[in-house]
Amino acid sequence: MHTLSITGANLGQVQKGNSKHACVRNLYIDVTTFYGMAPPVPTVTLTANPVAVTPGGETTLSWNATNATSCSAPWTNATGTSGTQIISPSATSTYIITCTGSGGSGSNSTTVTVNATNAVVVPSTIASDCSVDVTSALLSWIGTVPDNSTLAFGSGKCYRIEGTVELRGRSGLTFEGNGSTFKSFNPMTSGSATDDQRAMFRVIGSSNMAFKDMTIIGSYTHGGTLDSTIQHAHGIDIRGTSAEVANTNISNVAGDCVYFGLGYDNVTRSSGSYHDSTCANIGRNGLAVTAANNFTAQRNTISNVGFDAFDVEPNVGSYTTTSGWGSNNITIDSNTIQGYYRLYAYSIVTNAPNIGESFTNNKIVSNGLRVGIVNPTGASVRASNVTISGNTADTPTWSPAIESHLVDVLNITNNTIPMSGGTMATADSSCKVNVSGNTFTGGTTQFTNTNPTSGC
Fold first, then answer.
1. 42-82, pLDDT tens digit by residue?
2. In 139-208, at which residue ranges do the beta strands (DSSP E only) sit?
3. 69 and 100 in contact (C-beta within 8 Å)?
4. N or C: which end of the chain has fewer CB within 10 A?
């Protein structure tokens, strides 16, 4: 609806001679033509999430149009002005959508990149619905894939593993899960030597390996409880190998979610990273480091563990004296530990050299913070250059929250550790210990130092 207003000027009386005459100026309109604006042209946005996939991976195209009554595209049967469509491109592709309305039509496009370099898609003959055990089939296929390749699994599929996918002497293989699940259904039997070694994945004597975007679910039903007879059944078992474990979700394994240890040559330590992942309902440790150099664990969430959330523990004891065990430059940073763990949030066992260890900026939720640097074997080895800093907890713990033995250069700073009383940190037979800036609400003493040593 439009309103037209017309205003005249100098309306009133007109002087003619000695008299004034009223003047009425009326405007008579015979025809009025209005020229309005044309209907607006439709516009549409089109996005892809993610914008890059591996072969076999999926992405979601989303569109939203304005000033349109319908949309069309060759990659969808939908005609609405907004919607989503899941696609699985085999090569880098550009997708176009066109939307129409009374004002005409409008289009937009987006490109999805397929990172196909050296990528090998899992064969369709390998069951991807967890209906049968595919351990042997996967091993046979992986054996045909050349080094420096990406093994691309189907998006959101399920692969049943009742044995161990074990690789030796490989290089540059990336397991790209594309959100798939690798799952065991056969129960774990307490006391079974076979089950004790039934890791889901194991890599030995290899380099530049990676596990990404995958879910690993074991068949251990007693998460949060340690069964020492099957404690070596890990989710991902890395030995003498450089590897990255990223964006993985591991649960229900009897051993550790992730284990980094010594190679079978008894010399080569592992290295790499474990990050942006979750670990839950397990029998032993969230992460175990027994023989590794230059290793980082960051932004992981660990919950309901049967022993320690993070354990740096060289496997030196009555059954082995191999000199290759130990660690150097291990960083545990910005992780979250939720709920129950049995013994320590972070532990170092000093029965082999552990040099340059740090536990920093980690958050403990619904539990107290407990850290142990201990030596239960009675060995004379000392840890060195250990930092415990910036960690927080929201629940009081008992005394001492941090106990340390046989450490050369130890810094315990700026932690927030609620206490139910007693001393926050203790050190025994240690050298160059700095404890400062900590908050220990509920405790009575920040630090107690016994048998200090010098000369380190």
1. 999 999 998 888 777 788 999 999 999 999 999 999 889 99
2. 150-152, 158-160, 165-168, 174-183, 201-204
3. yes
4. N
Distance, in Å, from the CA atom of 392 to the CA atom of 418, rounded to the nearest integer, reads 9
The gap between the terminal CA atoms of the chain, to the nearest Å, is 90
The residue type of 152 is A
Report pTM: 0.79
Query: CA angle, 129 as apex, 124 and 135 as ends, to 5°?
Result: 75
Structure tokens at 298: 């960051």
Q: Check if the beta carbon of residue 192 is closer than 8 Å to that of residue 157.
A: no
68 exposure class (CB count in 10 Å sphere: 0-12, 13-18, 19+) = buried
The 3-state secondary structure of 279-341 reads: EEEECCCCEEECEEEEEEEECCEEEEECCCCEEECCCCECCECCCCCEEEEEEEECCEEEEEE
For 12-24, what is each residue's pLDDT tens digit?
555 555 555 555 5
Cα(400)–Cα(415) distance, rounded to whole angstroms? 14
pLDDT at residue 29 above 70? no
pLDDT of 58 reads: 85
- Residue 3 three-state SS: coil
The candidate with the shortest Cα–Cα distance to 412, out of 337, 330, 357, 335, is 357
Residue 319 has pLDDT above 50, yes or no: no
Contact criterion met (CB below 8 Å) for 258 and 274: yes
Question: What span, in angstroms and rounded, lies between the C-alpha atoms of 389 and 371?
Answer: 12
pLDDT at residue 320 in the model:
44
